[in-house]
Structure formats: structure tokens, C-alpha cells
Give the backbone structure.
Amino acid sequence: MLTGLDIEGTTLLHRTSARLKLIVLFAVAAGLFAVSNVWLLVAFAIIAAGLYASTGIGLREAFRRVRFVLFTVLLVALANYLFHSLSDALAVLFRLGTLVLLAAAVTATTTVSAFMDEIAVLLRPLERLGLLRAADVSLAVGLVLRFAPEILARYGDIREAHRARGLRARPLGVLVPLVILTLKDADTIAMAIDARGFRRQ
Amino acid sequence: MEIVFSDASVSFAGRTALHPLSLTLFERRIGIIGLNGSGKTTFARLINGLVRPTTGRVTIGGLDTVADEEAARGRAGFIFQNPQHQMILPVLAEDIAFGLKNRGLSATEIAGRTEAVLQRFGIPHLARRRIHELSGGETQLAAIASVMVTGPDVLILDEPTNQLDLKNRRLIEKTVADLPEQAIVITHDLGLLDSFDRVLLFHQGRLAADAPPEDAISRYREIAAC
Amino acid sequence: MSTRDIVLVALFAAIIVVLGMLPPITFGFIPVPITAQSLGVMLAGCILGAKRGAAACLLVVLLVAIGLPVLSGGRGGLAVFAGPTAGYLVGWIAGAFVTGLIAERLVRDSQTEFMQFASFFLAAVVGGIGVVYLLGIAWLSFMSGKAFVETAIASLVFIPGDLIKAVVAMLAARAVQAGYPLLPIRT
């Protein structure tokens, strides 16, 4: 549960630095909106699909990951077809499709810790101003990954407790104790972090 | 390491949790016993500054837990009642390394110390395991390792065998007994105290006995019988 | 932020992640299944207040961006931001902030039960629906090419489900406020 979407590999995209991939992705995203030639957009989409496939992800998993976003893209394209023209629809479809596939390719070839390193770089100006500490952000990310499985297990426990008492497990009856019990842990967890001397001044 | 309480007391919202107390702890094995709500945990948390004295002061090896908070805290490791709460990163090795961050150590040094402490407590095989998936005994050992990796002189354990089965209870008892460091243990597991040097009994926020294990435990039985 | 604030923010983000793992609920009278995740956004503002609530949502958005499958249906990664509905996700941050801002200023411990319910409901509707849709639709329109009006109107099919969530958020937020108050109330 909750492991990164990156897949192991040594392909060209895997070897490219996270920073370069992100810069190129943003540049392409901005550039795509300046292109309206459908044939050019189709060519881009084919290249993007090729790059996504080159990550070694496998067709099934590749599709599973982007199907929801591609579905929303398809709906938007459909609206363009119905109310405007086919060429408008195709432009939207292939423009956004290209972007989705490229983004998915970057995610598939970049580890969570590589992303976190880039985040730390982006946070540096804020850190200098004393507004936020990169270490605190990575602590928060770690805490979510640590405690989400715990909270899910607690959700199961609360539902069972309701059933054991012969109550129907209504959403609200589960949600409220789940939130209160979870947030009550904050005091001890915070104390434990302080006890281990992590946030020294 | 000498821990000195000088007229230290603690009140929360007008209620006195611990009445003024003066004593010096220097023994290698110190037990703390008492009924629920008797002030045991408050007393233990004073030692590493997790709780600040309302009056008086507490020093550890000469460092004041309020004025020299960071340094004093570094001398005393603390194992909480529910060790689940003190493991804060998802994978054990990451969590152990967490305590070493922000100390100016290199990545190699951090990895080396993490490996060494896992070896010391016999759990190198758990390094890549998720905290969520560890058993009760494994979590307790992992928590001890995660605290000891920073090299405190004193380890304070709050009911370390509380939620464990008999086998794991034995394992933790042995781990505590083998610690070369000074240990202060809050416990309801009276058998654990047999080999201890000194036992403090708390009752209604006051020190009710400060004696060798047998005497303190028999006084505890009298109190509990009332 | 204090250590406790960081922990509260992270635990709430974890609750939002867990809400995304629960199966979506379908109602006969609403055309689309509703997931509990955006309920978490309203709750974040109502329970933690503006600053910490927005931080919890920002943390979830960050987790999505760095490639963790934390959205409902196990979705995650940068592809989510490339889609036409990314504005709703980013809108969570501002939505939780506004929800918290309103809740902090309207909710009082001395209020009647009805007034507290009304305050939380207003906060959840304005922040959790109004602000989220404002940003969501703005982005959707930008991404939709010429059909921006039509897609914007179509996205309104989610409003009934979101109103149900605002009611649930109102009930839950008041119960949490009674049991373990964390909302920084401003007078």
C-alpha cells in the first residue's frame, strides 16, 4: 500500500534527471497550447505514447493509470465535437492526451525520493525567508505514509465495533470517532518527535 | 549520570500532578511503580524535559531540562507507553535514521549507525520492513533501537512490557537487563524489578516509598489493598 | 508551525488519503457516484481551521505530484495535473482555507446547536463547493478549448453529491468540535 508509482528500470527516461524531465514537461505543456494543427498534435501524441511505452511499464498497467484522466479528456473532446467542430475536438483530444501520457511517463520513471529532492530545491527560497523548512515537509510526507495504513485499519476496527454492538455501521458513526481518535494521537506523536530531537532550532 | 530533582513539582490546569520532590538518581537500574494516575509518567517525563516543572528544577548530568532543553533531552531517551506512536516514518531503517537527521552527520555515517544499532538489538532483518507490519515485540525492540541510535546515557521506558505476550515480555525484560546504559523503567510488571537497584513508589502525586525492590513492592501491595 | 501542528496536518492528510480508499457511494437520485475524498477537504477546514486545513490539502496534492496513488481509485502522479479536472484538485487547497476562514469566524462555543450547524454548513458550502468549483471550472474552461461553457455546465452534475457531503461535513465537524475541539475560534 502507498508505494510510489515509479517502476524499476534503466531506460533513457529513468536515467534522465528528474529536474530535466520536469522542465521539459512544463515547457511542452506550455508549448502545446500554441499548436493548433491537428496532424502535428497527432504526431506529438504518438511520440508521447511511444515514450510512455518505452518505460517498460506494460500495456495493461499503462492504461490502468491513465484511463480516468483520458476519459475526462475524451468527454471534453466530445463536448467540443457536439457544440463546435470535429477539428476542435481532435485538437483538444490530442493536445491533452499528449500531456497526460508525457506526465505519466515522468511519474513512471521518477522515484518519490527524487521528486522530494526537487521539492527541497524549490523550497529553498522559502526556507531562507524562514517560512517553511524542507525537513518539515519531508517529515509530514513520511508521517502520512506511516499513519495512513494505521488509520485504514482503525476504520475497519470501528466498523467492527459498531457491528459487535448490533449497530449498523453508518458513515457518520464511523467518521467521527475515526477523526477524533486519529487526531488525539497527535499529542503523543508530536511529543515523540520532540523527544527524539528532530526539530532542533 | 546523575539526575537531580530540586523541589520539582508539576501542576496541570490548577491540579497538582506531582507534589514538590527532591531526590538524586544515579543507580543503574531504577524502577517506578504506582497506581494509574499516581504521577509516575509525569515524574518520568520531567527527566528529559517533555514535561516542565511548574516549580523547582530538574537537572540531568548538570544540565537543566528547561534552560538546556535540547542538550538535556539528548542525554535521556524515552520509550513511550505505546511505541507505535513514536515510530514516525514508514520503514524501520528510515525511522531509525530520522533520529540522526539534523545532526550534521554524513549519509554514510547515518547508514553505518543505523546498521550498527539494528545489529545491537538483533533486528537487522527488519531494516526494510514497514512499521505498520511489525509485531508487538518487534515494534518495542525497534522503538528502543530508534532511541538508542542517538546515544543517550539514560533510557526511560514507560511500561515497556505492557501489551506484550509472555515470550516478548521475556525478550524485552532481557533487552532491558542487558543494557549497559542507565535505565529507568515505569512498570506494572513487578517481576521485572527483582534485579533493580532502587524502586520509587508514587501515590497520589507523592513519593510513597524510595527503597530496594522488595520493600517498595510490599508497600505498593499495602496501598493497592486499601 | 509547531511540531503538533505539523503532526495534525499530516494526520489529517492521511485521513483524506484513507477516505479515498473507501468505495464510492451511489444514490438513486444523483447521476454520479460520490467519493468521500472531497468530504475530507470540507472537514479539514472545519476541524483544523484555515491554515492547517489548507496545509493538509496541500500535502495531499504534493503526494499526488510526487507519484503516490493517494486519490480515490488509486490515482496519482503528474498525469492527474495534466487532465482537464486538475483545477478541482488544486482548488482543494484554497477551498479548505476558505472553509476554515469562515468556520473560525462564525463558529462559537456559546452558540446554539442549530447556529453551529448552520455555521459549519455555510463554511463547507462556500469553501468546499464554491471555491473548489470556481478554481475547478476556471481550469476546465481553459483546458476545454471552445466548449468551455458546455463543460462548465456539465460539471454541475456533481453539485447534489457535494451538497450531501456538506451536510455530512457539518454533522461530523460539530461532533468533533464537541468531542475534541481544535478549530482556532476567532472573536
Remarks:
- Residues 3-225 of chain B form a domain with the Rossmann fold fold (CATH 3.40.50.300).
- Chain B has seven helices and ten strands.
- The two ends of chain B are 36 Å apart (CA to CA).
- Chains B and C do not touch (no CB pair under 8 Å).
